[in-house]
Amino acid sequence: MKKTLIFSFIFILIYTLCPINVLADNQKEELAFNINSPSAILMEYTSGQIIYAKQEERRMYPASMTKMMSMYLLLECIEMKTHSFDDIVTVSSFASSMGGSQIFLKENERMSFEDLFTAVSVASANDAVVALAEHTYGSVEIFIDKMNEKAKLFGMNNTNFVNTTGFHDENHYTTAYDMSLLSRKLLTDYKDILLKYTSIYETYLREDTKNPFWLVTTNKLLSTYEGMDGLKTGYTSESGYNLSATASRNNMRFIAIVMGGATSKSRNADITTLLNYGFNSYKSVTLYKQNDVIREVIFSNSKEKITSLISKEDINVILKRNENIDKLTINIDIFDNTAPKSKDTIIGKLLIQSNGTTLAEYNLYPKDDITKLTFWDILYNYLKILI
To answer: What is the pLDDT of residues 208-261, one digit of tens each?
Structure first.
């Protein structure tokens, strides 16, 4: 009798627990694949939606992924026109002394801003990034202060930089989540110019000299993964193998980050797994084409009775392949509907939402310039009414 009761209890226990385990597995569809790296994240670029995460808030050493922030500051200098890709940079003794990945710059050597930026983007050159930091901000120390200032601005709350290169330091750390924020910000603000350099597999520097220098990318997936065009690798013995990768296919772009990989091979395998999951499991739906009229609104004190609102890019949303567009809601938020306004002024946002969660947002612009009513316009309109 005791044996019967014991076996009955075990059977009931197993029967009760099994459905719970099955349900948990179904709810965690994203975890169906195996990521070997200790920290990883997959983000959909347009919305910033996190598709997959593994210990994404764990503090890790970024190694040369640090240079993404350096690259942001350098591209900002180009955008602000305080510097130019045509600038000629004179290399300091300190810059020429950098070890690790480098292009072997010599003290007082002169090289263009663009060539140095190429060396950073393609070959992760430490001497090149230090030379550019000194050239743009006067000193590496000021440049590092700016790096940390930007990190706070971008919401990278678990990041601290102590150098521009990624050389190991206990106080130089970040997380996969913070790196995803930085990667997306780089792409959002400087995508076209950035990818021109991060997509280069190989090139040459000093081509017009007796000793041309061959640059080959540290991101070997550029040649093997369809649609990949960036962003940055990183490795030290303390950090392990890191990579922030981005790829675009079928009107979709994903950002995949792994940190602390055991080998470059396992790092690349993890990145491939993450990106494959994104591209295979999601679809892009176009809601409006670039310059489509999205809504017509009335602007106060405007000569134009009705103003058409447009987006300057296609408006897309990313959905799971089995999801229907009917689940989406579109909300339009107008910041300022007073004249005058240039057609290049952002006057509102279009928010694509599902169950209260914002999946993507797009800037809205007037289709044409909006002119303000003058006193004579108001008088004329008043007289027309009287007549």
So the answer is: 888 899 999 999 999 999 999 999 999 999 999 999 999 999 889 999 999 999
Exposure pattern of 48-87 as b/e (b: 16+ CB <10 Å)? beebbbbbbeeebbbbbbbbbbbbbbbbbbbeeeebeeeb
Q: Which of 106, 91, 156, 98 is nearest to 124 (CA)?
A: 98
Phi-psi region of 360 (alpha: psi -120 to 50; beta: other; left: phi over 0): beta
Catalytic-role residue among 39, 64, 121, 239: 64
**H/E segment holding residue 330:** strand 329-334
Q: Is 283 a catalytic residue?
A: no
Closest CA to 71 of 167, 217, 176, 197: 197
pLDDT tens per residue across span 2-15: 444 444 444 333 33
341 is catalytic: no
- What phi and psi values does residue 111 have, to the nearest 5 degrees? -145, 150
Residue 124 annotated among the catalytic residues of the structure: yes
Q: Which of 92, 121, 124, 183 is catalytic?
A: 124
Backbone angles phi, psi at 241, to 5 degrees: -95, 120
Q: Which amino acid is at 329?
A: T
Distance CA 150, CA 145 (A): 9
